[in-house]
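Budget justification aside, the reviewers requested a transparent look at the raw inputs and outputs of the sequence design task funded under Objective 1. We therefore reproduce one unedited record. The lines immediately below are the structure tokens for a 251-residue chain.
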């Protein structure tokens, strides 16, 4: 099982870039460049990604309250915030653990599901007419506090058992380089500092887990570390919601 697949998806930054573009904060060229960095060439029904952007622009309802774009992440102990047994839930199970939900008109939600491969990203589009399950709607501060508390609890448990091995020449350097990877290619300049801080903390915790489990190959603390996955995913979803709301208010 890959740790990275459980704690990170390019869909996080993709959702932020799409929201910034929909609200007029970045240009089409900017979002196309970001998408290329985030997942290589993107296609939609064998059409270029510009067709996908055009359809998203037409379908998105920015007028109603609440974030028009939501990041949906799922994993062990955290089912996706999609109707159980729905077309979108089944499609997500086939493609991975990340989706982007876009609020449409007349109560429709458009669920965009990326499938990432070494050759690029292909997108699947599903429509849900039933209301999606409500997320936790945590503020960035609440999500940050929960992640910080869970991280400290895990650290206390690990220290109590003597700490992890240090087989790498410089585990701290590995953590730093992985955190830099998670942040690439960055976020639009207009992203709220609160969201950016939350993403950075999630990146840091994810990098620590990957260093211990995948790079050091130490599975002694899997229960403590794996319990953080849900908090990392929740923090990422809360950060996207905050960024999206800010874009909409400034639109």
């Amino acid at each position: 099982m890959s740790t990275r697949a459980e704690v990170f998806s390019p869909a996080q930054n993709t959702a932020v870039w799409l929201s910034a573009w929909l609200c007029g904060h970045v240009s089409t060229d900017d979002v196309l460049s970001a998408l290329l960095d985030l997942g290589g060439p993107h296609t939609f029904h064998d059409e270029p990604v510009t067709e996908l952007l055009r359809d998203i622009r037409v379908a998105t309802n920015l007028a109603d309250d609440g974030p028009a774009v939501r990041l949906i992440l799922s994993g062990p102990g955290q089912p996706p915030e999609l109707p159980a047994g729905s077309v979108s839930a089944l499609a997500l199970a086939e493609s991975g653990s990340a989706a982007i939900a876009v609020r449409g008109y007349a109560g429709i939600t458009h669920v965009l599901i990326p499938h990432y491969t070494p050759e690029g990203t292909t997108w699947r589009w599903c429509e849900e007419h039933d209301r999606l399950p409500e997320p936790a709607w945590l503020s960035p501060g609440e999500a940050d506090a929960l992640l910080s508390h869970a991280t400290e609890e895990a650290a206390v448990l690990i220290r109590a058992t003597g700490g992890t091995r240090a087989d790498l020449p410089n585990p701290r350097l590995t953590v730093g380089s992985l955190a830099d990877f998670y942040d690439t290619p960055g976020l639009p300049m207009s992203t709220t500092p609160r969201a950016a801080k939350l993403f950075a903390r999630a990146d840091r915790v994810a990098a620590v887990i990957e260093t211990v489990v995948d790079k050091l190959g130490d599975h002694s603390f899997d229960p403590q570390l794996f319990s953080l996955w849900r908090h990392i995913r929740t923090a990422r979803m809360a950060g996207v919601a905050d960024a999206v709301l800010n874009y909409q208010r400034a639109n």
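Residues 140-237 form one domain. The chain has two domains: 3-135, 140-237. Computational costs for records of this kind are itemized in the attached budget.
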